[in-house]
Design brief:
alpha+beta; 4-stranded antiparallel β-sheet
Length: 149
């Protein structure tokens, strides 16, 4: 049995199948750990954004979710009048469907770590999944304007 498996993995097709399967499993597990899977149950994107929009990403922005799962350089966020739209690059889409989270289901707070400033978005009503973004990204999206006075 072990010998057959090794022979299969030594072929280009066998390795490709193994790699794609591993990639899909890892992406899906990351979505569960980080909270994306939980959010997708209630906030899967059903329609396009409307009104004035501001976008940031996917490159040059660090984003961390629950348990410090990092989505740096793979996440795109669009702030619209109705909601915050979040998606990841196509290669990481397994377990990460695009999300549309209404503003009334997002709590916004500022925080800092050493000399760096961040904005923490607590996503969802019951789900309460934290998403930490840089203050620069929050400014570009217009999220800082939504902070309570």
């Amino acid at each position: 049995m072990q010998e057959n498996l090794n022979q299969f993995l030594d072929t280009p097709y066998g390795f490709a199948i193994f790699f794609v399967t591993l990639w899909c499993c890892v992406c899906f597990i990351i979505s569960i750990i980080g909270g994306w899977f939980t959010l997708s149950r209630s906030f899967k994107k059903q329609s396009e954004s409307y009104g004035e929009t501001r976008s940031a990403g996917p490159f040059f922005y660090g984003v961390k979710m629950r348990f410090k799962v990092s989505y740096g350089n793979v996440i795109r966020m669009t702030a619209a009048e109705d909601a915050l739209y979040i998606s990841v690059l196509f290669l990481f889409r397994i377990g990460h469907p695009p999300l549309c989270i209404p503003w009334n289901k997002i709590k916004i707070a500022r925080t800092r770590f050493l000399w760096m400033r961040f904005v923490v978005l607590t996503l969802g009503g019951q789900e309460r999944i934290p998403m930490r973004i840089s203050e620069r990204m929050a400014r570009k999206l217009g999220i800082l304007e939504r902070l309570p006075s």
